[in-house]
């Protein structure tokens, strides 16, 4: 059973065993507006929790996507480069950014659960 | 109102929609195609002789196909550009409230001075002995800039704000390298509210960037800066007044903390118009600051540029100022063109421009300074701040202020919480302003405020002009709150071009004009 956890910066990570799929939340894509450009990291890059993992640019602004946990990039969604709008259409599904091989699963505990994140978004 | 023949005498008495014209023109508003659409390659307004037979040395680089430049007769070319100019909106058309841009009036006197042949016709390579007046003007401008900022040196050559940032940061980098700390001091602090050019400049110069969080009141706290200080910190880049329109209350403490940690303080001077004659950056502890002559000192701006971004430097950075610069010795100006020529103690970091900067802008800026005098420049700043606060007070009950506890300086910042539930966004509101005949304010900047609307009226506007602007924004705000959503989401209704598709422009940019083809549907 895949579990999804969230950061305060609106990244999600869906855990599937030792890897996690990272993207931005539906709330985040709504705030950004139409995404026009996505820059993804190289496969094999070591990310540290809270460090820059990718860049997402919308008609309004460019923002960093931060790594929710530390680990190594094992796969990136290169389809986003040609079709950045997928981030708006299906952020939790086809609009994923990258997959990380977790370095320390304990880091997940500092992230919010689905319910906690929904409450957090309501408070904004 | 009808005239004696029973015809309406005022615009608006008849609905546009009921009387669409056959041409698409709306009286003086002519539909104007692109020059590529109306030009013909076989036409030209200039009689150019065929070149004499020559031997091309281009080889395989020679163009294989026709260039296809559009040709127009002189009257056609004239009409094309005059018609386009009629669609333009500039400071000469009306109030231009673009925040953080200081779109002030460009006095005609400045233009007259800049057109004096002794200034407009000088060539950067002509002998020094033939341009003593131009050199004297540059020295005089430098003296004014140093006096107004309380700084001991100025590099005149940078061509615009961000270029000035690069100049200041390169001087800082050179100073750090001279102390032997080049390898270790490589991080620059940039507050979240900064102009986007600040982190970009730091990165371009080879620093890495660390963000300083903004406090809930929109300012930067000295404790937050201190928490990040260490032997790796090279500098902080801070805008004052900041992009929220607030004077940073702890700027002196922040400067002192930077200096104590062996780092430098770069101040973004984009908002200098708020404090000219009131506060001197040198007294605040600034090490380097660019001055946008095209903002604060009223030289043309936007399409009318070019810009000019001289950088004032502290005692610690002055020796690293770039060449070329003017050095006065025995009462005579000398142009220092290379490091080798630099006077004792100077270690210029290099050269940023081929020549000495924007002469025409120097003339205009000095004309502004001389015609205003010190009392006039001080009053201009006071009026700029007064005007911004007048607008803020006139709208505060309808629109929401993110930082109500701080008075505004030269610009008033609103957020979009007052639009919540109306279905109208900041962008929609800005587009509706176009229908009302105003250039929109800066929107969605600074990023620390949700749906930001940043209004900077400058000192150029009269009370009557401000009252009309406030009344218009109040009407729009009431309409937004009063369920008149279509007015906004469909705006602009009256502009020659309706709402552009920014998303498609970014996702599927058309970078080269080609003969008209059926436009592909975005959904494909």
- Could you tell me the CATH topology label of chain A: OB fold (Dihydrolipoamide Acetyltransferase, E2P)
What fraction of residues of chain B sit in β-strands? 5-15%
Distance from N terminus to C terminus of chain A (CA atoms, Å) equals 29 Å
Q: Report the major sheet of chain B.
A: 7 strands, mixed
Query: Radius of gyration of chain A, Cα only, in angstroms?
Result: 13 Å
CATH top level label of the largest domain in chain B: Alpha Beta
Just give the CATH class of chain A.
Answer: Mainly Beta
What gross morphology of chain A would you assign?
A: globular
Low-confidence stretches of chain B: none
Main beta sheet of chain A? 6 strands, antiparallel
How many individual domains of chain B?
2
Overall, the morphology of chain B is globular
Order of helices and strands of chain B: HHHHHEHEHEHEHEHEEEEHEHEEHHH
Look at the structure and give the mean pLDDT of chain A: 94
Question: Into how many domains do the coordinates of chain A divide?
Answer: 1
Ends apart, CA distance between termini of chain B? 51 Å
Oligomeric category: heterodimer
As residue ranges, the low-confidence spans of chain A are none
Calculate the mean pLDDT score of chain B and round it: 92
* Percent of residues in helices of chain A: 10-25%
């Amino acid at each position: 059973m895949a579990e999804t956890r969230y950061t305060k910066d609106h990244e999600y990570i869906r855990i599937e065993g030792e890897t996690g799929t990272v993207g931005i939340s539906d709330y985040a894509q709504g705030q950004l507006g139409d995404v026009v450009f996505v820059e993804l990291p190289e496969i094999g890059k070591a990310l540290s929790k809270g460090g820059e993992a990718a860049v997402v640019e919308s008609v309004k602004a460019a923002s960093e996507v931060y790594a929710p946990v530390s680990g190594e990039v094992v796969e990136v969604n290169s389809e986003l480069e040609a079709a950045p709008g997928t981030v708006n259409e299906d952020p939790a599904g086809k609009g994923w950014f990258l997959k990380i091989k977790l370095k320390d699963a304990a880091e997940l505990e500092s992230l919010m659960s689905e319910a906690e994140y929904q409450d957090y978004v309501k408070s904004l | 109102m009808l005239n004696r023949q029973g015809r309406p005498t005022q615009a608006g008495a008849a609905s546009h929609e009921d009387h669409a014209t056959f041409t698409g023109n709306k009286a003086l508003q002519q539909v104007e195609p692109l020059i590529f659409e109306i030009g013909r390659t076989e036409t030209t307004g200039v009689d150019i002789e065929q070149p004499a037979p020559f031997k091309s040395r281009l080889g395989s680089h020679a163009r294989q196909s026709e260039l296809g430049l559009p040709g127009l007769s002189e009257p056609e070319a004239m009409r094309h550009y005059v018609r386009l100019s009629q669609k333009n909106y500039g400071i000469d058309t009306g109030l231009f409230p673009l925040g953080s841009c200081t779109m002030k009036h460009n006095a005609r006197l400045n233009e007259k001075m800049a057109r004096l042949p002794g200034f407009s016709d000088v060539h950067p390579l002509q002998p020094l002995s033939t341009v003593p007046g131009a050199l004297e003007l540059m020295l005089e401008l430098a003296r004014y800039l140093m006096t107004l900022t309380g700084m001991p040196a100025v590099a005149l050559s940078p061509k615009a704000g961000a270029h000035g940032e690069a100049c200041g940061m390169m001087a800082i980098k050179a100073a750090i390298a001279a102390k032997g700390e080049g390898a270790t001091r490589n991080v620059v602090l940039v507050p979240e509210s900064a102009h986007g050019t600040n982190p970009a400049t730091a990165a371009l110069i080879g620093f890495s960037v660390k963000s300083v969080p903004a406090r809930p009141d929109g300012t930067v706290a000295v404790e937050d800066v201190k928490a990040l200080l260490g032997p790796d910190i090279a500098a902080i880049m801070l805008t004052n007044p900041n992009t929220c329109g607030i004077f940073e209350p702890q700027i002196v403490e922040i400067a002192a903390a930077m200096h104590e940690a062996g780092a430098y303080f770069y101040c973004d001077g984009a908002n200098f118009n708020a404090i000219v004659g009131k506060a001197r950056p040198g007294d605040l502890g600034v090490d380097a600051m660019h001055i946008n002559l095209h903002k604060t000192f009223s030289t043309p701006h936007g399409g009318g540029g070019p810009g000019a971004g001289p950088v004032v430097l502290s005692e610690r950075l002055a020796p690293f100022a770039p060449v070329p610069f003017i050095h006065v010795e025995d009462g005579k100006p000398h142009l220092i063109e290379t490091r080798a020529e630099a006077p004792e103690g100077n270690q210029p970091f290099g050269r940023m421009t081929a020549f000495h900067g924007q002469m025409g802008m120097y003339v205009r800026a000095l004309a502004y300074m001389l015609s205003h005098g010190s009392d006039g420049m001080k009053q201009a700043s006071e009026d700029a701040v007064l005007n911004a606060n007048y607008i803020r007070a006139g709208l505060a009950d309808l629109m929401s202020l993110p930082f109500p506890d701080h008075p505004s300086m030269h610009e008033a910042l609103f957020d979009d919480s007052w639009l919540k539930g109306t279905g109208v966004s900041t962008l929609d509101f800005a587009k509706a302003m176009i229908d009302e005949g105003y250039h929109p304010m800066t929107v969605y900047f600074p990023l620390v405020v949700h749906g930001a609307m940043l209004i900077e009226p400058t000192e150029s506007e009269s009370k009557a002009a401000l009252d009309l602007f406030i009344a218009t924004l109040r009407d729009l705000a009431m309409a937004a709150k009063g369920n008149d959503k279509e007015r906004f989401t469909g705006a602009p209704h009256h502009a020659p071009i309706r709402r552009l598709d920014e998303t498609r422009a970014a996702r599927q940019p058309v970078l080269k004009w080609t003969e008209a083809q059926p436009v592909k549907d975005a959904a494909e």
